[in-house]
Design brief:
This protein has 15 helices and 23 strands. It is α+β, with helices and mostly antiparallel strands and 463 residues long. It folds into three domains: 8-74 and 156-341, Bira Bifunctional Protein, Domain 2 (BirA Bifunctional Protein, domain 2, 2-Layer Sandwich); 87-149, Herpes Virus-1 (2-Layer Sandwich), CATH 3.30.40; 366-461, 3-Layer(aba) Sandwich (Rossmann fold), CATH 3.40.50.800. The strands form seven sheets. It has a seven-stranded mixed β-sheet with strand order 3-9-10-16-13-12-11. A five-stranded mixed β-sheet has the order 20-19-21-22-23, with helices on both faces. It is globular. The protein starts with 7 loop residues before the first helix and ends with a helix. The structure holds glycyl-adenosine-5'-phosphate.
Length: 463
Protein backbone atom coordinates (compact mmCIF):
# COMPACT_ATOMS: atom_id res chain seq x y z
CA UNK A 1 0.00 0.00 0.00
CA UNK A 2 1.12 3.54 -0.76
CA UNK A 3 1.05 4.90 2.73
CA UNK A 4 -0.17 2.77 5.56
CA UNK A 5 -1.85 5.76 7.17
CA UNK A 6 -3.96 6.84 4.22
CA UNK A 7 -6.99 4.78 3.35
CA UNK A 8 -9.60 6.05 0.92
CA UNK A 9 -12.06 6.91 3.68
CA UNK A 10 -9.49 9.15 5.33
CA UNK A 11 -8.65 10.88 2.05
CA UNK A 12 -12.31 11.43 1.09
CA UNK A 13 -13.09 12.79 4.53
CA UNK A 14 -10.05 15.11 4.55
CA UNK A 15 -11.05 16.39 1.11
CA UNK A 16 -14.53 17.28 2.27
CA UNK A 17 -13.53 18.65 5.68
CA UNK A 18 -10.84 20.90 4.26
CA UNK A 19 -12.56 22.14 1.11
CA UNK A 20 -10.68 20.14 -1.50
CA UNK A 21 -13.47 18.02 -2.98
CA UNK A 22 -17.19 17.80 -2.21
CA UNK A 23 -19.74 15.17 -3.34
CA UNK A 24 -21.55 16.57 -6.41
CA UNK A 25 -25.17 17.82 -6.16
CA UNK A 26 -25.12 17.02 -2.46
CA UNK A 27 -28.21 19.04 -1.51
CA UNK A 28 -30.25 16.89 -3.92
CA UNK A 29 -28.88 13.65 -2.53
CA UNK A 30 -25.89 13.56 -4.86
CA UNK A 31 -25.35 12.11 -8.33
CA UNK A 32 -23.47 8.83 -8.62
CA UNK A 33 -19.78 9.44 -8.13
CA UNK A 34 -19.72 13.05 -9.29
CA UNK A 35 -17.48 15.46 -7.42
CA UNK A 36 -17.03 19.22 -7.13
CA UNK A 37 -13.62 20.72 -6.52
CA UNK A 38 -13.70 23.24 -3.68
CA UNK A 39 -11.41 26.27 -3.24
CA UNK A 40 -8.31 24.21 -2.35
CA UNK A 41 -9.09 21.39 -4.75
CA UNK A 42 -9.34 23.71 -7.71
CA UNK A 43 -6.00 25.35 -6.78
CA UNK A 44 -4.34 21.95 -6.55
CA UNK A 45 -5.89 20.91 -9.84
CA UNK A 46 -4.88 24.13 -11.61
CA UNK A 47 -1.33 23.78 -10.28
CA UNK A 48 -1.07 20.21 -11.59
CA UNK A 49 -2.36 21.30 -15.00
CA UNK A 50 0.05 24.25 -15.06
CA UNK A 51 2.98 21.95 -14.24
CA UNK A 52 2.00 19.54 -17.00
CA UNK A 53 1.62 22.42 -19.48
CA UNK A 54 5.01 23.81 -18.46
CA UNK A 55 6.78 20.47 -18.86
CA UNK A 56 4.99 19.23 -21.97
CA UNK A 57 4.43 22.48 -23.90
CA UNK A 58 6.17 25.61 -22.62
CA UNK A 59 9.57 24.05 -21.95
CA UNK A 60 9.66 22.21 -25.26
CA UNK A 61 10.64 23.42 -28.72
CA UNK A 62 8.90 20.48 -30.29
CA UNK A 63 5.40 20.48 -28.74
CA UNK A 64 2.56 22.97 -29.24
CA UNK A 65 -0.75 23.38 -27.40
CA UNK A 66 -4.35 23.02 -28.53
CA UNK A 67 -7.84 23.40 -27.11
CA UNK A 68 -10.20 21.51 -29.39
CA UNK A 69 -13.98 21.19 -29.07
CA UNK A 70 -15.68 18.57 -26.90
CA UNK A 71 -18.33 17.97 -29.59
CA UNK A 72 -16.77 16.64 -32.77
CA UNK A 73 -18.36 15.55 -36.02
CA UNK A 74 -19.72 12.04 -35.24
CA UNK A 75 -17.80 10.66 -38.22
CA UNK A 76 -14.73 11.13 -36.02
CA UNK A 77 -15.89 8.35 -33.69
CA UNK A 78 -16.82 6.09 -36.55
CA UNK A 79 -13.34 6.43 -38.03
CA UNK A 80 -11.49 6.12 -34.71
CA UNK A 81 -13.38 2.90 -33.91
CA UNK A 82 -15.02 4.30 -30.77
CA UNK A 83 -18.56 3.78 -32.06
CA UNK A 84 -17.93 0.14 -32.78
CA UNK A 85 -15.55 -1.00 -30.12
CA UNK A 86 -15.30 1.49 -27.25
CA UNK A 87 -17.41 -0.82 -25.14
CA UNK A 88 -17.14 -2.74 -21.89
CA UNK A 89 -18.61 -6.21 -21.15
CA UNK A 90 -21.66 -5.45 -19.01
CA UNK A 91 -23.04 -8.36 -16.96
CA UNK A 92 -25.95 -8.46 -14.55
CA UNK A 93 -26.29 -10.80 -11.61
CA UNK A 94 -29.70 -12.44 -12.08
CA UNK A 95 -29.99 -13.01 -8.33
CA UNK A 96 -29.33 -9.59 -6.81
CA UNK A 97 -29.28 -7.36 -9.95
CA UNK A 98 -25.71 -6.20 -9.27
CA UNK A 99 -24.08 -4.77 -12.42
CA UNK A 100 -20.49 -5.73 -13.06
CA UNK A 101 -17.84 -5.30 -15.73
CA UNK A 102 -16.88 -8.83 -16.77
CA UNK A 103 -13.22 -7.97 -17.43
CA UNK A 104 -12.84 -6.21 -14.08
CA UNK A 105 -14.51 -9.06 -12.21
CA UNK A 106 -12.14 -11.53 -13.82
CA UNK A 107 -9.06 -9.44 -13.07
CA UNK A 108 -10.12 -8.79 -9.49
CA UNK A 109 -10.05 -12.56 -8.90
CA UNK A 110 -7.33 -13.81 -11.26
CA UNK A 111 -4.99 -10.81 -11.34
CA UNK A 112 -3.97 -8.04 -13.78
CA UNK A 113 -4.04 -9.03 -17.41
CA UNK A 114 -6.37 -12.03 -16.88
CA UNK A 115 -8.91 -10.50 -19.27
CA UNK A 116 -6.33 -9.10 -21.69
CA UNK A 117 -7.13 -9.79 -25.31
CA UNK A 118 -10.22 -11.90 -24.50
CA UNK A 119 -13.46 -11.42 -26.39
CA UNK A 120 -16.70 -11.19 -24.41
CA UNK A 121 -17.60 -14.87 -24.83
CA UNK A 122 -14.18 -15.94 -23.51
CA UNK A 123 -14.51 -13.61 -20.52
CA UNK A 124 -17.86 -15.21 -19.71
CA UNK A 125 -16.44 -18.72 -20.09
CA UNK A 126 -13.45 -17.93 -17.88
CA UNK A 127 -15.68 -16.49 -15.16
CA UNK A 128 -17.71 -19.72 -15.17
CA UNK A 129 -14.67 -22.00 -15.42
CA UNK A 130 -13.11 -20.34 -12.38
CA UNK A 131 -16.38 -20.30 -10.47
CA UNK A 132 -16.20 -16.54 -9.92
CA UNK A 133 -19.17 -15.32 -7.94
CA UNK A 134 -21.10 -12.06 -7.69
CA UNK A 135 -19.20 -9.71 -5.35
CA UNK A 136 -22.51 -8.66 -3.78
CA UNK A 137 -24.58 -11.79 -3.17
CA UNK A 138 -21.93 -14.50 -3.58
CA UNK A 139 -23.91 -16.48 -6.18
CA UNK A 140 -22.89 -17.28 -9.73
CA UNK A 141 -25.78 -16.59 -12.04
CA UNK A 142 -24.74 -13.88 -14.50
CA UNK A 143 -26.26 -12.79 -17.79
CA UNK A 144 -23.93 -13.15 -20.76
CA UNK A 145 -21.85 -9.99 -21.34
CA UNK A 146 -23.44 -7.28 -23.48
CA UNK A 147 -21.37 -4.62 -25.23
CA UNK A 148 -22.00 -1.37 -23.44
CA UNK A 149 -20.72 1.63 -25.38
CA UNK A 150 -19.09 4.15 -23.07
CA UNK A 151 -19.79 7.25 -25.11
CA UNK A 152 -22.39 9.73 -23.87
CA UNK A 153 -24.85 10.42 -26.64
CA UNK A 154 -26.81 13.64 -26.99
CA UNK A 155 -28.55 15.72 -29.67
CA UNK A 156 -27.39 18.87 -31.36
CA UNK A 157 -30.04 21.51 -32.08
CA UNK A 158 -33.76 21.34 -31.43
CA UNK A 159 -34.68 18.12 -33.19
CA UNK A 160 -33.91 14.90 -31.34
CA UNK A 161 -33.46 12.48 -34.22
CA UNK A 162 -30.66 10.26 -35.42
CA UNK A 163 -29.32 12.87 -37.85
CA UNK A 164 -28.59 15.20 -34.94
CA UNK A 165 -26.79 12.74 -32.68
CA UNK A 166 -23.47 13.93 -31.27
CA UNK A 167 -21.20 12.42 -28.62
CA UNK A 168 -19.32 13.95 -25.72
CA UNK A 169 -15.69 13.10 -26.44
CA UNK A 170 -14.39 10.10 -24.47
CA UNK A 171 -10.77 11.27 -24.94
CA UNK A 172 -9.13 14.53 -25.95
CA UNK A 173 -6.82 12.73 -28.39
CA UNK A 174 -9.11 12.64 -31.43
CA UNK A 175 -9.44 16.45 -31.48
CA UNK A 176 -5.67 16.56 -31.87
CA UNK A 177 -5.68 14.23 -34.89
CA UNK A 178 -8.38 16.34 -36.52
CA UNK A 179 -6.20 19.46 -36.20
CA UNK A 180 -2.92 17.82 -37.26
CA UNK A 181 -3.03 19.29 -40.75
CA UNK A 182 -3.96 22.83 -39.64
CA UNK A 183 -1.10 22.84 -37.17
CA UNK A 184 1.44 21.57 -39.70
CA UNK A 185 0.27 24.30 -42.09
CA UNK A 186 0.35 27.16 -39.61
CA UNK A 187 2.88 26.55 -36.85
CA UNK A 188 6.23 25.85 -38.57
CA UNK A 189 6.55 22.55 -36.74
CA UNK A 190 8.42 19.77 -38.46
CA UNK A 191 8.05 16.07 -37.68
CA UNK A 192 9.03 14.94 -35.06
CA UNK A 193 6.75 17.19 -33.02
CA UNK A 194 3.84 16.91 -30.62
CA UNK A 195 0.47 18.51 -29.93
CA UNK A 196 -0.78 18.55 -26.34
CA UNK A 197 -4.06 19.51 -24.79
CA UNK A 198 -5.89 19.52 -21.50
CA UNK A 199 -9.64 19.15 -21.33
CA UNK A 200 -12.73 17.35 -20.15
CA UNK A 201 -13.63 13.89 -21.35
CA UNK A 202 -16.73 11.85 -20.65
CA UNK A 203 -17.25 8.10 -20.36
CA UNK A 204 -20.41 6.37 -19.26
CA UNK A 205 -18.44 4.03 -17.01
CA UNK A 206 -20.37 0.97 -15.79
CA UNK A 207 -18.59 0.97 -12.46
CA UNK A 208 -17.38 4.45 -11.56
CA UNK A 209 -15.82 4.52 -8.12
CA UNK A 210 -12.87 4.80 -5.80
CA UNK A 211 -13.58 8.51 -5.34
CA UNK A 212 -12.13 10.50 -8.25
CA UNK A 213 -10.14 7.54 -9.62
CA UNK A 214 -12.89 6.52 -12.03
CA UNK A 215 -15.64 9.01 -12.83
CA UNK A 216 -17.91 9.64 -15.79
CA UNK A 217 -16.72 13.22 -16.24
CA UNK A 218 -12.99 13.81 -15.88
CA UNK A 219 -10.13 15.80 -17.30
CA UNK A 220 -7.25 14.54 -19.37
CA UNK A 221 -3.78 15.86 -20.25
CA UNK A 222 -2.82 14.18 -23.50
CA UNK A 223 -0.07 14.62 -26.03
CA UNK A 224 0.21 13.09 -29.47
CA UNK A 225 3.81 13.02 -30.65
CA UNK A 226 4.14 12.62 -34.43
CA UNK A 227 7.30 10.97 -35.68
CA UNK A 228 8.77 9.27 -38.72
CA UNK A 229 7.74 5.60 -39.12
CA UNK A 230 10.52 3.42 -37.77
CA UNK A 231 11.55 5.92 -35.08
CA UNK A 232 8.45 5.42 -32.92
CA UNK A 233 9.93 2.90 -30.48
CA UNK A 234 12.81 5.23 -29.68
CA UNK A 235 10.35 8.06 -29.00
CA UNK A 236 8.18 5.68 -27.01
CA UNK A 237 11.12 4.90 -24.70
CA UNK A 238 11.93 8.61 -24.50
CA UNK A 239 8.38 9.66 -23.46
CA UNK A 240 8.01 6.83 -20.96
CA UNK A 241 11.10 8.15 -19.17
CA UNK A 242 10.00 11.78 -19.49
CA UNK A 243 6.60 11.03 -17.92
CA UNK A 244 8.15 9.01 -15.10
CA UNK A 245 10.58 11.81 -14.33
CA UNK A 246 7.84 14.44 -14.36
CA UNK A 247 6.06 12.56 -11.59
CA UNK A 248 9.29 12.30 -9.59
CA UNK A 249 10.03 16.00 -10.09
CA UNK A 250 6.77 16.73 -8.28
CA UNK A 251 7.71 14.52 -5.38
CA UNK A 252 5.93 11.23 -6.10
CA UNK A 253 7.70 8.38 -4.31
CA UNK A 254 9.10 5.65 -6.53
CA UNK A 255 8.35 2.90 -4.01
CA UNK A 256 4.67 3.39 -4.80
CA UNK A 257 5.08 3.41 -8.57
CA UNK A 258 5.77 0.84 -11.25
CA UNK A 259 5.98 0.73 -15.02
CA UNK A 260 3.91 -2.10 -16.46
CA UNK A 261 4.49 -3.01 -20.10
CA UNK A 262 1.54 -4.56 -21.89
CA UNK A 263 2.32 -7.98 -23.23
CA UNK A 264 1.45 -8.94 -26.79
CA UNK A 265 -2.09 -10.18 -26.07
CA UNK A 266 -2.94 -7.06 -24.07
CA UNK A 267 -1.94 -4.63 -26.83
CA UNK A 268 -4.70 -2.85 -28.77
CA UNK A 269 -4.80 -3.87 -32.41
CA UNK A 270 -3.28 -0.52 -33.46
CA UNK A 271 -0.45 -0.41 -30.92
CA UNK A 272 3.02 -1.90 -31.22
CA UNK A 273 3.99 -0.99 -27.63
CA UNK A 274 2.07 0.28 -24.61
CA UNK A 275 2.83 0.67 -20.96
CA UNK A 276 1.00 1.92 -17.91
CA UNK A 277 2.63 3.90 -15.17
CA UNK A 278 0.82 2.44 -12.18
CA UNK A 279 0.50 3.59 -8.62
CA UNK A 280 -0.32 1.56 -5.54
CA UNK A 281 -3.50 3.19 -4.25
CA UNK A 282 -5.11 2.18 -0.95
CA UNK A 283 -7.40 -0.10 -3.03
CA UNK A 284 -4.51 -1.68 -4.97
CA UNK A 285 -2.41 -1.03 -8.07
CA UNK A 286 -4.11 1.08 -10.72
CA UNK A 287 -3.26 2.82 -13.99
CA UNK A 288 -2.21 6.40 -13.57
CA UNK A 289 -0.71 7.16 -16.98
CA UNK A 290 -0.89 5.28 -20.25
CA UNK A 291 1.92 5.67 -22.78
CA UNK A 292 1.15 4.09 -26.15
CA UNK A 293 2.85 3.79 -29.48
CA UNK A 294 -0.24 4.04 -31.71
CA UNK A 295 1.42 3.56 -35.10
CA UNK A 296 -0.31 5.54 -37.88
CA UNK A 297 -3.70 4.09 -36.99
CA UNK A 298 -5.60 7.29 -36.18
CA UNK A 299 -4.29 9.54 -38.96
CA UNK A 300 -4.80 6.75 -41.49
CA UNK A 301 -8.37 6.17 -40.29
CA UNK A 302 -9.25 9.89 -40.48
CA UNK A 303 -7.56 10.23 -43.85
CA UNK A 304 -9.57 7.33 -45.26
CA UNK A 305 -12.85 8.47 -43.73
CA UNK A 306 -12.57 12.18 -44.55
CA UNK A 307 -10.78 12.00 -47.87
CA UNK A 308 -8.30 14.67 -46.65
CA UNK A 309 -4.64 14.00 -47.31
CA UNK A 310 -3.13 13.85 -43.83
CA UNK A 311 0.29 12.75 -44.99
CA UNK A 312 3.27 14.82 -43.96
CA UNK A 313 5.70 16.12 -46.56
CA UNK A 314 9.28 15.92 -45.40
CA UNK A 315 10.98 18.57 -47.54
CA UNK A 316 14.54 17.61 -46.71
CA UNK A 317 14.04 13.96 -47.58
CA UNK A 318 11.53 14.77 -50.34
CA UNK A 319 9.32 12.11 -48.81
CA UNK A 320 5.60 11.98 -48.04
CA UNK A 321 4.32 9.72 -45.25
CA UNK A 322 1.70 9.28 -42.54
CA UNK A 323 3.50 9.95 -39.25
CA UNK A 324 3.49 7.41 -36.45
CA UNK A 325 2.27 8.56 -33.05
CA UNK A 326 3.41 8.12 -29.47
CA UNK A 327 0.79 9.16 -26.93
CA UNK A 328 1.27 9.82 -23.21
CA UNK A 329 -2.30 10.11 -21.82
CA UNK A 330 -2.87 11.16 -18.23
CA UNK A 331 -5.95 11.96 -16.15
CA UNK A 332 -5.89 15.20 -14.15
CA UNK A 333 -8.23 13.92 -11.42
CA UNK A 334 -6.34 10.66 -11.06
CA UNK A 335 -3.06 12.56 -10.78
CA UNK A 336 -4.56 14.76 -8.09
CA UNK A 337 -5.75 11.71 -6.15
CA UNK A 338 -2.30 10.17 -6.49
CA UNK A 339 -0.56 13.24 -5.09
CA UNK A 340 -3.04 13.41 -2.21
CA UNK A 341 -2.57 9.76 -1.26
CA UNK A 342 1.20 9.89 -1.69
CA UNK A 343 1.70 13.08 0.31
CA UNK A 344 -0.65 12.22 3.17
CA UNK A 345 1.02 11.58 6.50
CA UNK A 346 0.28 11.53 10.19
CA UNK A 347 2.90 12.25 12.81
CA UNK A 348 3.28 13.66 16.29
CA UNK A 349 4.61 17.09 17.14
CA UNK A 350 5.26 17.77 20.83
CA UNK A 351 3.01 14.87 21.80
CA UNK A 352 0.19 16.12 19.58
CA UNK A 353 -1.02 14.23 16.53
CA UNK A 354 -1.02 16.08 13.24
CA UNK A 355 -2.15 15.34 9.70
CA UNK A 356 0.11 16.73 7.02
CA UNK A 357 0.17 16.77 3.25
CA UNK A 358 3.78 16.84 2.05
CA UNK A 359 2.72 18.26 -1.31
CA UNK A 360 5.45 19.64 -3.52
CA UNK A 361 5.43 23.46 -3.11
CA UNK A 362 4.78 23.80 -6.84
CA UNK A 363 1.41 22.11 -6.56
CA UNK A 364 0.46 22.97 -2.95
CA UNK A 365 -2.84 24.91 -3.12
CA UNK A 366 -1.77 27.55 -0.60
CA UNK A 367 1.87 28.58 -0.91
CA UNK A 368 2.15 30.44 2.39
CA UNK A 369 0.12 31.53 5.39
CA UNK A 370 0.70 34.85 7.14
CA UNK A 371 -0.07 34.50 10.83
CA UNK A 372 -0.26 37.60 13.05
CA UNK A 373 0.35 36.52 16.66
CA UNK A 374 -2.30 38.99 17.87
CA UNK A 375 -5.05 40.88 16.12
CA UNK A 376 -3.63 44.26 17.13
CA UNK A 377 -1.32 46.81 15.58
CA UNK A 378 1.54 46.97 14.89
CA UNK A 379 1.53 43.13 14.48
CA UNK A 380 -1.68 43.14 12.46
CA UNK A 381 -0.57 46.05 10.28
CA UNK A 382 2.71 44.31 9.36
CA UNK A 383 0.91 41.04 8.58
CA UNK A 384 -1.66 42.89 6.43
CA UNK A 385 1.12 44.56 4.45
CA UNK A 386 2.90 41.28 3.71
CA UNK A 387 -0.35 39.58 2.80
CA UNK A 388 -1.56 42.45 0.60
CA UNK A 389 1.76 42.41 -1.29
CA UNK A 390 1.08 38.82 -2.43
CA UNK A 391 -2.60 39.45 -3.09
CA UNK A 392 -1.85 42.43 -5.31
CA UNK A 393 0.56 40.32 -7.37
CA UNK A 394 -2.21 37.70 -7.77
CA UNK A 395 0.34 35.07 -8.76
CA UNK A 396 -0.35 32.38 -6.22
CA UNK A 397 -2.59 31.75 -3.25
CA UNK A 398 -1.38 33.13 0.08
CA UNK A 399 -3.69 33.21 3.09
CA UNK A 400 -3.97 35.40 6.15
CA UNK A 401 -4.97 33.33 9.18
CA UNK A 402 -5.63 35.11 12.44
CA UNK A 403 -7.95 32.83 14.41
CA UNK A 404 -7.02 30.26 17.08
CA UNK A 405 -3.73 29.50 18.80
CA UNK A 406 -0.61 29.58 16.68
CA UNK A 407 -0.23 25.79 17.06
CA UNK A 408 -3.75 25.27 15.77
CA UNK A 409 -3.08 27.52 12.82
CA UNK A 410 0.10 25.59 11.92
CA UNK A 411 -1.87 22.35 12.13
CA UNK A 412 -4.62 23.79 9.93
CA UNK A 413 -2.10 24.64 7.24
CA UNK A 414 -0.26 21.31 7.56
CA UNK A 415 -3.51 19.60 6.57
CA UNK A 416 -3.75 21.80 3.49
CA UNK A 417 -0.12 21.15 2.60
CA UNK A 418 0.93 24.83 2.95
CA UNK A 419 4.75 24.71 2.77
CA UNK A 420 5.52 27.92 4.71
CA UNK A 421 3.94 29.82 7.58
CA UNK A 422 5.22 33.30 8.43
CA UNK A 423 4.36 34.42 11.96
CA UNK A 424 4.41 38.13 12.74
CA UNK A 425 5.05 38.82 16.44
CA UNK A 426 5.85 41.62 18.90
CA UNK A 427 9.52 41.75 17.82
CA UNK A 428 8.74 42.11 14.14
CA UNK A 429 8.43 45.89 14.24
CA UNK A 430 11.86 46.29 15.89
CA UNK A 431 13.93 43.69 14.04
CA UNK A 432 12.05 43.62 10.71
CA UNK A 433 11.83 39.82 10.97
CA UNK A 434 9.15 37.14 11.17
CA UNK A 435 9.27 33.47 12.15
CA UNK A 436 9.30 31.07 9.23
CA UNK A 437 7.90 27.67 10.14
CA UNK A 438 8.57 24.83 7.73
CA UNK A 439 5.74 22.35 7.13
CA UNK A 440 7.91 19.27 6.65
CA UNK A 441 10.58 19.73 9.33
CA UNK A 442 8.43 21.97 11.61
CA UNK A 443 11.67 23.89 12.18
CA UNK A 444 11.35 27.58 12.94
CA UNK A 445 13.77 30.38 12.08
CA UNK A 446 13.78 34.15 12.04
CA UNK A 447 13.90 35.63 8.56
CA UNK A 448 13.89 39.19 7.21
CA UNK A 449 10.50 40.44 6.09
CA UNK A 450 12.23 41.84 2.99
CA UNK A 451 13.33 38.28 2.16
CA UNK A 452 9.94 36.53 2.37
CA UNK A 453 9.14 36.71 -1.31
CA UNK A 454 12.54 35.30 -2.31
CA UNK A 455 12.28 32.50 0.26
CA UNK A 456 8.90 31.53 -1.11
CA UNK A 457 9.94 31.68 -4.75
CA UNK A 458 13.05 29.58 -4.04
CA UNK A 459 10.92 27.04 -2.22
CA UNK A 460 8.50 26.80 -5.15
CA UNK A 461 11.36 26.51 -7.64
CA UNK A 462 12.93 23.84 -5.44
CA UNK A 463 16.17 25.81 -4.89
N1 LIG B 1 -6.28 8.67 -25.62
C1 LIG B 1 -5.96 7.52 -24.87
C2 LIG B 1 -6.74 7.38 -23.65
O1 LIG B 1 -7.70 8.10 -23.42
P1 LIG B 1 -6.97 5.91 -21.51
O2 LIG B 1 -5.99 4.95 -20.89
O3 LIG B 1 -8.33 5.41 -21.78
O4 LIG B 1 -6.27 6.41 -22.84
C3 LIG B 1 -5.88 7.95 -20.32
O5 LIG B 1 -7.05 7.21 -20.61
C4 LIG B 1 -5.89 8.35 -18.86
O6 LIG B 1 -7.09 9.06 -18.54
C5 LIG B 1 -5.89 7.18 -17.87
O7 LIG B 1 -4.58 6.70 -17.66
C6 LIG B 1 -6.44 7.83 -16.62
O8 LIG B 1 -5.45 8.58 -15.95
C7 LIG B 1 -7.46 8.81 -17.20
N2 LIG B 1 -8.83 8.22 -17.18
C8 LIG B 1 -9.37 7.36 -18.07
N3 LIG B 1 -10.64 7.05 -17.75
C9 LIG B 1 -10.91 7.73 -16.61
C10 LIG B 1 -12.07 7.83 -15.75
N4 LIG B 1 -13.21 7.20 -16.05
N5 LIG B 1 -11.99 8.63 -14.67
C11 LIG B 1 -10.85 9.30 -14.38
N6 LIG B 1 -9.74 9.25 -15.15
C12 LIG B 1 -9.76 8.48 -16.24
Amino acid sequence: MANKKADMKTIVSLCKRRGFIFPGSEIYGGLANTWDYGPYGVELKNNIKREWWRAFILKRDDVVGLDSAILLNPKTWEASGHLKSFADPLMDCKECKERVRGDQLLESKLGDGAAAGLDFASIYAKINDNDIKCPRCGKRNFTEPRAFNLMFKTFQGVIEDSTNVVYLRPETAQGIFLEFKNIVNTCRQKVPFGIGQIGKSFRNEITPGNFIFRTREFEQMEMEFFCKPGTELEWYAYWKKYCWEWLLSLGLRTENMRMRDHDQKELSHYSNATCDIEYEYPFGWGELWGVASRTSFDLTAHMNASGEDLRYFDQEANDRYIPFVVEPALGVDRTLLTFLVDSYDEDEIGGEKRVVLHLHPRIAPVKAAILPLVKKDPVMGIAEKIYRGFKDEGEFLVEMDESGSIGKRYRRHDELGTPCCFTVDFESEQDGKVTLRDRDTTKQERVDISNIEKILRDKIRGV
